[in-house]
């Protein structure tokens, strides 16, 4: 059985992180904080009901977001991706290094992009 995700974040890929920071902080009044681990930096914040929103400046993925990303809290991302592939799930991006950990992207049956992320200090395999 696959480990159950314990929380999810909505991730946006944007063309100008500084413009995004100004809009969400100054226009919408959200409290996004600058984070290190991606260049130039990335933004994160938590809405009142606990949903985390994350912004990365990135070419190529814009327009395919926001993306729902599930946090694999206990690790085992390699096992999860392998199990999804065995069940016929389309893996878009295999496990790769991501800010603070590891990530992978896949499609649901209707073609919606979903992602997985786990912290770097957790084991990639639980087997």
TrEMBL record:
Superkingdom of this protein's organism: Bacteria
One Pfam family linked to the record: Glyoxalase
VOC domain: residues covered: 6-119
Residue stretches in coiled coil: none
Protein's UniProt name: VOC domain-containing protein
Gene source species: Nitratireductor thuwali
């Amino acid at each position: 059985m696959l480990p159950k995700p314990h929380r999810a974040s909505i991730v946006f890929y944007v063309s100008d992180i500084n413009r995004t920071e100004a809009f969400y902080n100054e226009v919408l009044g959200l409290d996004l904080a600058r984070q290190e681990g991606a260049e130039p930096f990335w933004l994160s914040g938590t809405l009142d009901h606990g949903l985390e929103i994350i912004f990365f400046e990135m070419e190529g993925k814009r327009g395919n977001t926001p993306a729902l990303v599930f946090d694999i809290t206990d690790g085992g991302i390699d096992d999860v991706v392998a199990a999804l592939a065995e069940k016929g799930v389309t893996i878009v991006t295999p496990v790769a290094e991501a800010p603070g950990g590891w990530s992978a992207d896949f499609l649901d049956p209707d073609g919606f992009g979903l992602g997985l992320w786990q912290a770097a200090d957790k084991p990639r395999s639980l087997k």
